[in-house]
Design a protein that fits this description.
With 418 residues, this protein is an alpha+beta fold. 37% of the residues lie in helices and 21% in strands. The strands form three sheets. It has an eight-stranded mixed sheet with strand order 1-5-6-11-10-9-7-8. It has a five-stranded mixed sheet with strand order 13-12-14-15-16, sandwiched between helices. The chain has a three-stranded antiparallel sheet with strand order 2-4-3, covered by helices on one side. Helix 5 packs across helix 9. The protein is elongated. The two termini are 45 Å apart.
């Protein structure tokens, strides 16, 4: 074998693809009922779209971006996440001129140069949603409720919704100071990354999964204790609204998302069935980002679902054996031509019909029908053509029924689910 796929990427093939489509269809339907419209954005952007928004000192920007120079010597980055490109597009296309909230969703690949491990890929897929122009915490509750509805609709169970507020630019400095005071005398226990993070962006220390750092930061001051009045009220209203909407949630004061742009509401959904890499979706509010990008001050909130995280959790419970509704086994040339004609007419009616091209025995044609999970089979030979009648056999129940050799008869039979 001469060519192999790159490390950390995957080929997604049938029958797995039906699980992907199932999730995408469920999500689209729910997005529609909430008024979210799809957008498709480029996979590559100018590198500077990501640097300040995600944060110069974040792991993503420091270590994980696929960045390269194109032939025009521009620095290009394959998007590591969806929100920064969305905000770029929001401003560039003047989407803020539409009535607020402006609600969008996207589906597609993201790229991060990470160590490949179970359910983690360097090209990974997200379904994301963004709602712009409203800072009312009812919108936060609504978008979290929508996320919960999507995850439930695809069959996920045992989910834990963790929420917090990480404050705003008014109150965050107080928190960072308190955090620094707390961490200062524990610096000797930090990993080398955290030693550096302590100086550049101490919030990042809270993201670190290195055991020594996890231990050292135990008991650190909870961010929710340092919220200003505005942020505190916002958070209280969010909690009240989530209760009113019956969205179960827990408050995790130590939840800090690995991106710099979040303000106020932040949330993460994890599954008890996924071990240490347990987050299946995450999101938050980013009220300062549009202005930071040079646009009009506009609040925003969004989330992203990790496809590769949820697929292993639901795959086994989904029926993925798909097959044609009708399989036609012709015997002889004349029958083969008639088979093609029947197939074309049924396909025009939207039925999935396959014709055997092998010109072999009935037995081997039937074996093939079985292999591709055909639901119904007809054998078309000289007798059938002469009498204008065929036997349609249901491959599941083994029931047989004789019908006229007329398209509408098959159409009716297949449609009735027989
Ligand atoms: Zn605040
Ligand atoms: Zn560390």
């Amino acid at each position: 074998m001469k060519y192999r796929k790159l490390k950390g990427v995957q080929d997604i093939l049938p029958p797995d693809i039906s699980v992907w489509q199932f999730i995408e269809e469920k999500a689209r339907k729910i997005f529609r009922s909430y008024g979210y419209r799809e957008i498709r954005l480029p996979i590559m952007e100018s590198t500077d779209v990501f640097i300040r928004s995600i944060g110069e000192t974040s792991d993503i920007v420091e270590k994980e971006m696929y960045t390269f120079k194109d032939k025009g010597d521009r620095s290009i980055t394959l998007r590591p996440e969806g929100t920064a490109p969305f905000v770029r597009a929001y401003i560039e296309n003047h989407l803020n001129n539409e009535p607020a909230p402006q609600k969008y969703y996207y589906m597609g690949p993201m790229f991060r140069y990470e160590r490949p491990q179970a359910n983690r890929y360097r090209q990974f897929y997200q379904i994301g949603a963004e709602a712009m122009g409203i800072d009312d915490p009812k919108l936060d509750a609504e978008i979290i409720s929508m996320l919960s509805l999507i995850l439930e609709a695809v069959g996920l169970k045992g989910l834990n919704f963790e929420i917090t507020s990480i404050g705003c630019k008014e109150c965050r400095p107080d928190y960072i100071k308190a955090l620094k005071d707390f961490l200062e005398d524990k610096m000797l226990d930090f990993c080398s990354d955290c030693g550096r993070r302590f100086k550049t962006n101490p919030l990042r220390v809270l993201d670190c999964k290195v055991p020594g750092c996890v231990k050292a930061k135990k008991g650190s001051p909870p961010v929710v204790d340092y919220l200003c009045k505005d942020c505190g009220d916002h958070f209280d209203q969010l909690k009240n609204n989530l209760n009113r909407l019956n969205v179960p949630h827990t408050i995790n004061p130590n939840l800090v998302r690995g991106l710099d742009y979040y303000t106020k509401t932040a949330f993460e959904v994890s599954s008890e069935n996924l071990g240490s890499q347990s987050a299946v979706a995450a999101g938050g509010r980013y009220d300062g980002m549009v202005k930071e990008f040079g646009g009009p001050a506009t609040p925003g909130i969004g989330f992203a679902i990790g496809m590769e995280r949820i697929i292993p959790l639901i795959k086994d419970s989904l029926e993925t054996t798909d097959g044609p509704e009708l399989y036609i086994c012709p015997l002889g040339n004349e029958a083969a031509e008639e088979a093609l004609r029947i197939a074309e007419q049924l396909r025009a009616k939207g039925r999935w019909v396959e014709v055997n091209y092998d010109n072999t025995s009935i037995r081997s044609q039937m074996r093939k029908a079985n292999k591709i999970n055909a639901k119904n089979v007809i054998v078309l030979g000289d007798d059938e053509l002469k009498n204008r009648k065929v036997t349609i056999k249901n491959m599941g129940s083994k029931d047989e029924e004789i019908v006229d050799l007329v398209i509408n008869e098959y159409h009716k039979l297949i449609q009735s689910g027989k």
